[in-house]
Amino acid sequence: MTTYRVAGKGRVDTGQPVTFTFDGKRFEGCAGDTVASALLANGVHLMGRSFKYHRPRGPVTAGSEEPNALIGTRRGAGQFEPNTRATVQEIWDGLETTSQNKFPNLKFDIGAINDFAYMLFSAGFYYKTFMWPKNFWHKVYEPFIRKAAGLGVSPTEEDPDTYASRNLHCDVLIVGAGPTGLAAARAAAVGGVNVVLIDENVECGGTLLSKPNAEINGMPSWDWLAAELVSLRSLGVKIMTRTTAIGYYHQNMIGMVEKLTDHLSDLPKDTPRERMWHVRAKQVILAQGALEKPLVFHGNDRPGVMLAGSAQTYLNRYGVLVGKRPVIITSHDSAWDAAFDLADAGADVRAIVDTRETVDEELQSQARMRGIGMKLSHTVTATSGRLRVSSIRVNPIDDGKAGDGLIIPCDALLMSGGWTPSLHLFSHTKGSLTWNEDQTTFLPKDTPEDCTIAGASRGLWGIENVLIDGASAGVKVAMALGKESQTRQHKVTHDRIGSGVSQIELPTDKSSGKAKAFVDFQNDVTAKDLRLAVREGMRSIEHVKRYTTNGMATDQGKMSNINGLNIAADALNKPQPQVGLTTFRPPYTPTTFGAFAGYHRGDHFEITRKTQIDSWAQENGAVFEPVGQWRRARYFPKRGEDMDTAVGRECRTTRAHVGIFDASTLGKIEVVGPDAVEFMNRMYTNPWTKLAAGRCRYGLLLGDDGFIRDDGVIGRMSQDCFHVTTTTGGAARVMNMMEDYLQTEWPDLDVWLTSTTENWSTIALNGPKAAKLLAPLVDGVELTEDAFPHMSCAECTVAGMPARLFRVSFTGEIGFEINVPAPMGRKLWETLWQAGQEHGITAYGTETMHVLRAEKGYIIVGQDTDGTVTPYDAGMGWAVAKTKKDFVGMRGLMRPDLVASNRRHLVGLLTEDGTKLEEGAQIVFDPHQAIPMTMVGHVTSSYHSDAMGRPIALALVECGQNRMGETVYIPMPDRTIAAKITSTVFFDPSNSRVKIPSGEML
Amino acid sequence: MLLINCPYCEETLPEAEFVYAGEAHVLRAETPSELSDQDWAEFLFIRQNVKGVHFERWRHFHGCARFFNAARDTVSDKFLITYKAGEPRPNLTELAGDAT
Ligand SMILES: [Zn+2]
User: Fold this and answer.
1) At the fourth CATH level, which superfamily is domain A294-417+499-512?
2) Is the ipTM beyond the 0.90 threshold?
3) How far apart (Å, rounded) are the C-alpha atoms in residues A721 and A696?
4) Cβ of A890 and B32 within 8 Å?
5) pTM for the predicted model, two decimal places
6) Interface test mutation site (partner A, options B37, B45, B60, max chain A beta carbons within 10 A)
């Protein structure tokens, strides 16, 4: 059934058949085929539907720039990938492929009705069509857009494949292994530098693979290629195929994706599907070649209409005739060459239609020799055929206008509008471009990187020319690296260089409003859309692009950018450089998420920090919550308890007996040195000079702007050593801030800072029985109110372990924080847990910690403050030293807006009806005012308090401290809640409970 | 990804080891409380945001942990020089001469 395969042509292995399916139907191809070449060999051009109009489409190219033939590929569960270009996907036995954007099937598609609603979908339709009426949004427009948006279907199962990433350092990276890259690699490698040569294709050779007739230095091009690859390898050149340079980043860093298994029927064990390479090259040579430009005419998107150069590739590389009766439409010589190759392979070339009046006599005589009819100074004005082109309409051009049409039957239409240099990676380097009027295209100019662009990428045509240019690029980079090299002679025969003219839309006799002449095939943008965008006021190509979506699809405008620019420039009547070229951005071709993610997935996506006590919490049924990177026990439910019940019990037990809490995640910084106290004085708001060794103080850290940044209890272990604690989330930030001031503002201070967060396990014991529980285990300190009062610290042993013991309380109860060397944490926890049984001990988590501290009005930085709260706003003016010469934030606190009279203060809120408020809810003074209301603050913390038997809340309220007892209102969607402003301290305002009763026998 | 030379380690290393730390040579006064509101606001909030050579601070966070200064061209993203904290701002015209 392979009726379009040409015996003796191509590089595929016809002796090795490969079976795959397309939309459920079985097809046979050969080893070496792509999905597109195999389907074309079977006479199938229709491979997909377009995105917007669901028009039938076939492949227009033979490479990675393909806009139309996008398919889904599937290997097994989770191994589905949408938007694969059929023109690059190699076939293997068992490959399942499906077409896209079709319903119910590819040959009959209901969405194609969009095609008849063409007028609705013209330029800017995203902005215009869905504007009115407003209430259509939810019911009509949004569901429609959601259904229509996006190409292909996302996979729904987890991807079982693995993706790797690697680094590579080399002297020279050469992107593109066509004749330019090969010659460059040779010249550089001969000079003795280390060369990496990559190509996105299955094999090296580039254009040589499509030009077997050329002879290089007396050898047929394919023989020359094979010999050249052998000698490059022997020179030590690392050659990587199926490898795409996706982006060119700063200082010659190139991202490359190597596809390792997508072409294999049987997956090798332990091989990643793709590998992301981070390459740092001393010199880069870009040899990406050029892309052929489509012509813009009515019906240029019909299956069977294809680039002439691509048809030549299908013939010479894959041994496939894309049509047996093709017609050529061109404005460039290169398509004539393609016509001759197809004719010589047995195709009945019906005509060469050329828009030019005069064409090289040599080409004309070759056409005559083959009996091919020529129509110079002619245009194509229409194509017909339901799912594939069956005829075209050809008209003479007279004075720029199309005359009477003539129908020519055909089964393929091969077009060429000339060639566009590939400048994608060059543009990633911030390389500047210059407009070349002769070639009607942009050419590369300067780049800030150590980068050389060579061959067709810089507008040179013909194999001989690019071989010479590639070789001199190789010599140039070798010399830049301090090596000597020489170019070799390159003599190429049967090298058809050719020239052409650039076209905007082809002349037509069809009314321009009705012509569907596509510029961007993937996004269904027509020449009419571009002209409409200009009429509607778009002046820059960046605006035209966004208004029409020209060049915004997954092919990044590889085919459409220059045609789009030429048409926009024509409509604006301005030269192209004044209209501008849109920016090329990475990645060069669509790249899988897997390649970017690499190893960073699942458990390796982000680290989870666990304390030494985490395992105990896990074994004892804790429910966890993430706090920064830490995993912390939130509460410890007993059988049948929900969170509220568990937290209520934990609170109650702690206030009645004793609770144990894992505080190991608290940030800890050791501040040591002769100037430690001076450093503390400058960093924190509080005075530190008079704090005696063995005492602690609550420390408040501001930014120089005067706002609260962090807080924590700080113990002076000795004259020159402070044990600083920070919030869990703020530890790294505080350390960075301290280092910043120490290194850059006060380098004269003799102080050392050490992060000790992970050196200590920290266990908090709180409750009336905390001292009673702990005392028998402690050696070196007597746990009485007199010997070890609230806010004391000491080095001692606890249960035989060396410890730093703090008498502090974040609950309002008698409290201790015991720091032991981290690995001993779980042992100490179990010892305390055991000893606590007779005291009715409970373990509690972060939720109970939050409730207990809120009952006492202790703030959580970052919850009750938001980076705009001063110590005075928070009611903590007492923590600010009054007599220091300076501290971080002191000057900031004097800023006019920080001493203004309308600041928001932290206050307590008690709802009148006992409702628990929502954290973040906005507060107003007058609930009856007109909407939008004036908001005067928000709720920062809200809990049910077991101790108070009611909900409590903390809030920032404008002038709140002057409004004690007043009522404020919290408007919610269903009702407005009234609440009274109170002190932030709800429980035990006299702090009587932190004292160890003097009569208590220990 | 940039390559950055740490003037303390005297090695050129990938950007991933470093963190940016804002404009350089923004001096904090010895006694800020003596500054006017205007001068203090300038110190806190006003930055150059230059297009061209920018003096800025970096920290070799995952290395020696030192803060240092750099002159970087914000157009080309090229580092002209890096130097230790506390050293004077290098002469711009000399740098431009070196760069060409
Ligand atoms: Zn360093």
Assistant:
1) FAD/NAD(P)-binding domain (3.50.50.60)
2) yes
3) 12
4) yes
5) 0.89
6) B37
